[in-house]
Amino acid sequence: MKTRLARHRPSGRFISSLFIQELTVADLAFVVTTVAVFALVALIARGVTKL
How far is residue 26 CA from its own chain's centroid? Predict the structure, then answer.
């Protein structure tokens, strides 16, 4: 038997899907940031070797 509140809550699938999507975006942001930092370090290292 469903209570009144249970009818207004989103299903568990919706919550887990949204949570997984947020984790995917966070992972993508982490990878992009990491690649950018390593690219910056490579450019700085190349500039230092030219001195």
Answer: 1
pLDDT of residue 9: 57
Q: Which single residue is written with the structure tokens 């999507």? A: 21
pLDDT > 90: what percent of the chain?
A: 43
Model pLDDT for residues 13-37, shown as the tens digit of each residue: 566 777 777 888 889 999 999 999 9
Q: Give the whole-angstrom CA distance, residue 1 versus residue 23.
A: 34
Query: Residue 39 to residues 10, 13, 27: CA-CA distances in angstroms?
Result: 43, 39, 18
The CA-CA-CA angle for residues 19, 8, 1, to 5°, reads 110
